[in-house]
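Can't paste images in this forum, so I'm doing it all in text. The chain is below; anyone willing to post the predicted structure tokens underneath?
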Amino acid sequence: MESITPYLFFHGNCEEAINFYKKAFNAEIVGIQRFGDASMPVGDDYKDKIMHAELKIGSTSVMFSDGAPHKEITPGDNVHLNISFTDETNLRLTWGKLSNGGNVHMDLQDTFWGALFGQLEDKYGIRWMMNYQKAE
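Text version of the structure:
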């Protein structure tokens, strides 16, 4: 396991939130990827929304997204913890332990960004995103 990073989801106002936190923390926007830049099919009204962005606050990265258009974003459940793994076996072992008694939101699967990825909520209500970037 490399790192655990907070991932914040917003209901259509992600760009506004990033700029707010950038100013509040004197932070740096590392990158922004919009839904229209990816191969994920979305309506024209959602193409400019943020699929993934990273803000560097001191030595900490915080990730942001408007979330998929079909997903409801509710304050209180819009914070996830993203774990970046360096080993697929470790990801699968951790996935098995955290999903036990929990609720899988997205099964582990290969993604268009070249990773093995999944999302779950553990038995304590904590939401996890797990990512293993495969070698190219």
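The chain has two helices and eight strands. The mean pLDDT is 90.
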